[in-house]
Amino acid sequence: MTKLFSWNVNGIRAVINKGEFEKFLSTYNPDIICLQEIKAKKEQVEINLPNYVEYWYSADKAGYSGTALFSKQKPISVAFGFPEEIIDRFNLTGDTYGDPNKEGRVIVAEFEAFYVATVYTPNSKGDLSRLTLRHKHWDKAWLAYMKQLDSKKPVLFSGDLNVAHTEIDLANPKQNIGKHGFTNEEREGFSNFLAAGFVDTFRMFIKDGGHYSWWTHWANSRARNVGWRIDYWLASERFASHITHAAIHPEQFGSDHCPVSITIDL
């Protein structure tokens, strides 16, 4: 059994300083860890991971975005960011907010039987100023990249996709229709992953609502479980039979997001 975890830590230094990252490791003992929004460079972080190889991809901008991948098994290869031909094909050069290719958002690790990818999808922003980037460029580029990898071997991709796909994926759907994270455009982008043959692993096992991975800090939302499911593991359909479990872990604190996981059996 191999346990894969994904977690938007919203600042890895804060999670470590709270003692929550050590608790996370001891509680779940993951084989592969994908992190988003690390908000730090490796040399700024005091962390001891003797059982893991570490891959860090930090944003150019200090204290912003970034991803990391830690694995007990050394990958065959690791790639950071989108391939140049994908960037060119989808004109993924940025917007008035900045260049998403300089924000440390994508890591792909190749293992013998599959690829593991982690992504921190750009937030559309409250004023939807990044919705065009998301809808016209990023989501299309990400899907093309995952399909390209999938043509070689199965893909498991994880991360904060910054979208609740259906109404059961957030506590208050009606009042959030059209708002960032629940626009038709973002939801369509997620549907395109499924149409292309990727499986939402959590929905393989759990069909009902009330299961969330992110809660606003306002109004005691986490304690009241007024949240959104925006963190995912998706898998190539032909690999789905190897996935024995998928879960969300709201019991793990330290961030406004909680970890999400899958267990695979080869």
Q: If you compute it from the alpha carbons, what radius of gyration comes out, rounded to the nearest whole angstrom?
A: 17 Å
The total of helices stands at 7
What's the helix-strand series? Answer: EHHEEEEHEEHEHHEHEEE
Name of the CATH architecture: 4-Layer Sandwich
Regions with pLDDT < 50 over 5+ consecutive residues?
A: none
Q: What fold name goes in the CATH topology slot?
A: Deoxyribonuclease I, Chain A
Helix content: 10-25%
* Biggest sheet details: 6 strands, mixed
CATH C-level name: Alpha Beta
Distance between the termini: 7 Å
State the total count of DSSP E strands: 12
Looking at CATH, the homologous superfamily is Endonuclease/exonuclease/phosphatase
Tell me, what's the shape?
globular
Structural class: alpha+beta
> Strand content of the residues, in percent?
15-25%
Give the total of domains: 1
If you average the pLDDT, what whole number results? Answer: 97
Name the features.
globular, 12 strands, Deoxyribonuclease I, Chain A, single chain, six-stranded mixed sheet, 7 helices, 266 residues, alpha+beta
Description:
The protein has a 6-stranded mixed beta sheet with strand order 3-4-2-1-12-11. It is built from 7 helices and 12 strands. By secondary structure, the chain is α+β, with helices and mostly antiparallel strands. The chain is globular and about 45 Å long. 41% of the residues are buried. It has one domain (2-264): 4-Layer Sandwich (Deoxyribonuclease I, Chain A), CATH 3.60.10. Helix 4 links the parallel strand 7 and strand 8 (155-160). The model has no long low-confidence stretch (mean pLDDT 97). Helix 4 (131-150) runs parallel beside helix 6.
